[in-house]
Specification:
Blueprint: H1 3-16, H2 33-36, H3 60-82, H4 87-123, H5 126-144
Helix pairs in contact: 1-3, 1-4, 3-4, 4-5
């Protein structure tokens, strides 16, 4: 994730998913995902993947378009603050960006459940239990936000 995007999204992210360790500006020590997201293992989420491709791979292009649109919204928020626009107008845009992020999260969760979790449950064993636990934790994080 580009540093500018990570920095810009910091304030919206803290509204969307309150995490006390999230930094609004990633410094040299903040290059690893685990530095700013305690629930992400060192090396990132990729370490956890056991499939040939993630559940969202078929819709990757759609997700990237949506995330780029959200990135544009965040940059617009920065401009609004720089231009000292009216508070309610800024808050309205923060709400829109938050809702857009939540929509992406729900879509990714749906694809994770339909692909990764479903495949693990079909195979059974410890991997199925781990995937179900992981999905429960992800849902809990989304509900808290």
């Amino acid at each position: 994730m580009p540093r500018a995007f990570a920095s810009a999204i910091g304030s919206v992210w803290s509204t969307w998913a309150p995490m006390t360790t999230m930094r609004t500006s990633l410094g040299a020590a903040g290059d690893s995902p685990s530095d700013w997201r305690p629930d992400v293992p060192t090396g990132g989420i990729v370490e956890r993947m056991t499939h040939a491709h993630p559940g969202y791979a078929d819709r990757k292009v759609d997700h990237l378009k949506r995330l780029r649109r959200i990135e544009g919204q965040i940059r617009g928020l920065q401009r609004m603050v720089e231009e000292e626009q009216y508070c309610i107008d800024v808050l309205t845009q923060v709400s829109a960006a938050t809702k857009a992020l939540q929509s992406v999260a729900l879509s990714l969760l749906d694809e994770h459940l339909g692909h990764c979790v479903a495949d693990a449950v079909k195979e059974g064993g410890a991997d199925a239990d781990a995937k179900l636990k992981e999905a429960n934790e992800a849902i809990a994080r989304l509900v808290r936000s």
